[in-house]
Amino acid sequence: MMLDHPIARFENLKVEFQTQDGPVEAVKGVSFDIAAGETVAIVGESGSGKSVSSLSLMRLVEYGGGEISDGRLLFDRGAAGQVDLRTMNPNDMRAIRGREIGMIFQEPMTSLNPVFTIGRQLMEGLRLHMGLSKAAARSRAIDLLRQVRIPEPERRLGQYPHELSGGMRQRVVIAMALACEPRLLIADEPTTALDVTIQAEILGLMNKLKKDTGTAVMFITHDMAVVAQMADRVVVMFRGEKVEEGLVEDIFENPQHRYTQNLLAAVPKLGEMRGQPTPKPLSLIGQPEKSLIGSVPPTEEVLLDVRNLTTRFNVKGGFFRRTVARVHALENVSFSIKKGATLSLVGESGSGKSTCGRSILRLEEPQSGSIKLGDRDILALDSAGLREARRDMQMVFQDPFASLNPQMTLADQVAEPMKNYNMAQGSELMDRVAGLFDRVELPRAFMRRFPHELSGGQRQRIAIARALALNPKLLIADEAVSALDVSVQAQVLNLMLELQAELGISMLFISHDMAVVERVSHHVAVMYLGRIVEIGTRQEVFEDPRHDYTKTLMAAVPVADPRQRTLQADFESKPIPSPIHPLDYDPGPTEYTHLGGEHYILNS
């Protein structure tokens, strides 16, 4: 479908990467257009060439070892006319990036500079491209942070990326991309790290920008519900090729290509589990329906017991860097997980979900409370005892690029935990590694590759394989499937359910994807500003939500139907709550009302 006056036009784009095994063609002759005021969603599996296409348009693919071997990348610069970005010199490209083409990158920690403050990074583009004074740039930066729903934006300007949660960092990257109101906005998985309430607001903001300024949006995502809510047209990619293109309604209601049909079938939908007491695998087209009958049901024996866990972080300020406030990341959090069961923690970015997982492993030191794994008191262990205990509890981190070593091959990274604990050596070790690659559906040929040679979704599968290497009793999965496209997500979730069934692994599943949580959980705890506001069995929480915040979360879940669009940018008036409080702040007691069964809600 070619348009008369598109802002961007891809014509027969081909991109190659050089690897140890010879050249790999990542994009094979792809053509499509994006018009002013239009959102084109590029969907497909991890490794299908979606991100490579967008990086080619920005001419950033060359910095990652790629080469545009053929095709044209036409871009309409308005008064300056149409240009072919492929042939532009680096100085002209620098003027276009950020000002005329903005990009929201997939992994916020790799696209933010760790040594500069948030304020400096936001203001740099504003001063460079828009010629603003320092004061005007600061004022605009604060306004942008407020637009992307970041609490206390003035304070955030002085913070560094590592001081923010994954979802907060992603919102900073979105603010940077929107700063100069570009003609074309490339959004590469912009909402994977965001909870549903913030996601709805950010998508509403992008829609508002599109309507107000005529910005064209190239939206790369694996979330088909977001596609249904945002896209005007859809381009489906598979193994570097465009396999289908059409209006969003046509793609959802009458998909022609078998791969598009597979993608839509693998989408978990909220409400599918009504009346189902236990987790259920996702169906994958072309594969027989799996059953977990004969699996190990959760026992009554408690593996992990957490009581009154409180974790706070000091906020430094002033010339002498004194403590001026505290972040109340966790406040009196209590729950237990039985052997072979899954408890899911859900809530918005910054609610304390990841801090909870890290506190259990003592990657963050709690102020008070107790953590018991079996008969071991985790908070009482010395460093040697803690090292031994961590063999039984492993974590899959939110950002796979940050948790993998860029200088080690993937095989060495998966083997490392087994070497550290002397579990295997030599050929037995490599056989085990190869078996783990098979388990997470990665080709054994990838064992010689490095992390940068993989897509985001493939890296996440390596992180899962490494966490499984020690056969842990407890797996803490921190947004473990948020970076995966739906078909791979379905495979990984089924893998986790199978492992739970075979090995009786307990899971603390941290996620903001309500449909996924509904699919895999036995129990659910909803977190808000460091406290659990509602907890119970999956059926109690999902089929009878009682707390106002839980109801808000459920209502914000996007629907995978382009004819039911619910996104609104009507959040301007809502105050943004913050977990940062003065030193003399008294959080008050944490008391619950019992609603029957295992269902409790926080007294407001």
From TrEMBL:
It is a peripheral membrane protein. One of its GO terms (molecular function) is ATP hydrolysis activity. PROSITE patterns: ABC_TRANSPORTER_1 (PS00211), ABC_TRANSPORTER_2 (PS50893). SMART domains: AAA. It is found in: Cell inner membrane. GO terms for biological process: peptide transport; transmembrane transport. This is Glutathione import ATP-binding protein GsiA.
